[in-house]
Design goal:
By secondary structure, the protein is an alpha+beta fold. It is 37% helix and 26% strand. The radius of gyration is 20 Å and the shape is elongated.
C-alpha cells in the first residue's frame, strides 16, 4: 500500500511539473488591430488552410496563413496578414495532430 501511495505521489509531482509547460502553449501576443479608416478592404473574408493534419501546430498554423495569403493576393497583390481585418487562426486537433484554418478579410493601405 505504501509503495502504491508513493507511486501516486510521484505521478502527481510529475503532473505538477508538466502544468506550467502546458500553460505556456498559448497564442502569441497579437499586434493591435489595424485602423479600418486607413485601409481598403475586400468585401468578404477569405479562409486558408494547410494540406492536412500536421504533428507541429506551429507548422500547421503557418501553412494556413500561407494558403490564406496566396488566396488574398489574388484579390489585392499587396495583401498582408498583418493588416487583414478580423484575422485569426483556429485549429482542429486530433490526438497529437493539428489542422489549422486562417480566416481574415484582406486589406491594403488606402491610396
Amino acid at each position: 500500500m505504501r509503495r502504491m501511495a508513493s507511486g501516486f505521489i510521484a505521478g502527481l509531482a510529475m503532473l505538477a511539473l508538466m502544468v506550467p509547460a502546458a500553460a505556456q502553449d498559448t497564442e502569441e501576443e497579437e499586434a493591435p488591430p489595424p485602423d479600418p479608416a486607413t485601409l481598403e478592404c475586400h468585401d468578404q473574408a477569405i479562409e486558408g488552410s494547410g494540406p492536412g493534419f500536421d504533428a507541429s501546430r506551429e507548422k500547421s498554423e503557418q501553412a494556413a496563413r500561407d494558403n490564406w495569403l496566396e488566396k488574398a493576393k489574388a484579390v489585392f497583390p499587396d495583401a498582408n496578414w498583418d493588416i487583414a481585418l478580423d484575422a485569426g487562426v483556429s485549429c482542429a486537433v486530433q490526438g497529437l495532430y493539428s489542422k489549422c484554418f486562417a480566416l481574415g478579410t484582406p486589406c491594403r493601405p488606402k491610396g
